[in-house]
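Step 1: inspect the first sequence and its tokens.
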Amino acid sequence: MAQQTVDNPFFARFWTVLSAHESRGMRELRRANLLGLSGRVLEVGAGTGTNFAFYPDSVTEVVALEPETRLAPLAKAAAAAAPVPVTVIESTIETMSATEPFDAVVCSLVLCSVADPDGVLRQLNAVLRPGGELRYFEHIASSGWRGGLQRLADATIWPRFAGNCHTHRETERSIAGAGFVIDTARREAMLPAWVPLPAQEVALGRARKELLAVE
């Protein structure tokens, strides 16, 4: 049975410090990922609530899931200052209770850390209304020497250090495999190419759930 909450003290402290000192470039990527959203939104893995300030006022409600017990209180504090209504729920997506369909789902640096990304993406497809959007901002698999470094890191220390993050995941392939149609996608380097860290590149994109066929 999937866990409803997570308690990882080291990662929670690390992420709290990191998210409080994000670069301007990182903040702009977050803003771009949320641009143009409207209606009711599900955010998966809210962390400390870093996205909340960037939701446009066309969003009527955000339901934000954060299973890390030490990050959820920080997300709730950020929700209180958000420009749109945000409800933070301490739960994983795998154990989220049934709900009315959402107009959009937001994933920011979270699909790398779930145990079954393909299963989670199928679940996200199921909670979206037909035509609803998935907005993603995610670590992705690299090629060449960095891809080899990612595979080594993922098999050893990196997931323990970084909250179960797995950097060598074909996330966009999984998104398409879960029934989404990717409309726009781009890749951004978060660090210089020579920096020997596995989490160097991210994908930013928009995908949609196909409309139901009319018989």
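Step 2: inspect the second sequence and its tokens, then contrast the two.
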Amino acid sequence: MLAVFTSKRNKMATVIGLDIGGTKIAAARVTDGVAENIITTPTPATQGPEKILDAAAGLAAQLGHGPIGVSSAGLIDPFKGTVQFATSQLTGWKGTDVAGGLSARLGAEVSVLNDVQAHALGEYLHGVGRGHESMLLVAPGTGIGGGVILNGRLLLGAHFAAGHVGHVDSHGAEGVACTCGRDGHAEAIASGFGIERAYEERVGMHLTGRDISQEDSAVAREILATAGRTFGRLIGGLVNVFDPGLVVTAGSVMKAGKVWEQAFREGFDASCMELLQDTPIVSGTLENAALVGAAAWVSERKNYEVQ
């Protein structure tokens, strides 16, 4: 029987949510978990942090005034609103004071959270995770991100890096370079990037993950099966560690097809302890979950002690 958690959170006033990603920036007015008046603009990803903040502020300004909650790529200090680490996807993003930069431009209170942590918080508060005390969200896309809810609270970690589930060591990934600069991690072979790289190394031609999932060849099936099995074992291991009430999945790789799906289930069953194998694994249901979670963090952060 699943433990059901009754939240005592109050309804929220309208907040402007911002989601800063590698290819686009989105903004919306968010009230009680509903994102409305959504607008977007391409991210000037290679032009440096000031241009990115200019674009984000310009978008938010179109939606009026009020507190702002930001979902951002990178490893974020959610109390200072600064970027502690970022990949080269956003040029110069590491070290950026997102909260200070946007507050100076807009004259508003600004709160910032990592994008996948925001996604998890949004799904937990207003999506399929509502009513549960604990939840694990895992999102395999270009990389593999995640978020953990325990006892009704988003797990942040001592360095605010909790949820980087793709960087767990994985059998079969030994010596394979990961996007984080290390090797041997699940993300190196089970992410969209990992699938595309493996195919290119084997065939000598680059295809998108979607094209690989639709290709009827022995090589494509083998790569997808390896990725699916690795991802399943990753989820099984995380369930063994956290014992969540449910697992929520999101991300483009979840649509990789039957070969991947069967291997994913096989990997999960092989890794997850018998007692926990009935843990529900469900798809996320909340549209614009990162925007919703970012908006929620404006009030949620006040319930957390600064670490």
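Step 3: confirm your contrast with the notes below.
Residues 1-8 have pLDDT under 50 and may be disordered. DSSP finds nine helices and twelve strands in the chain.
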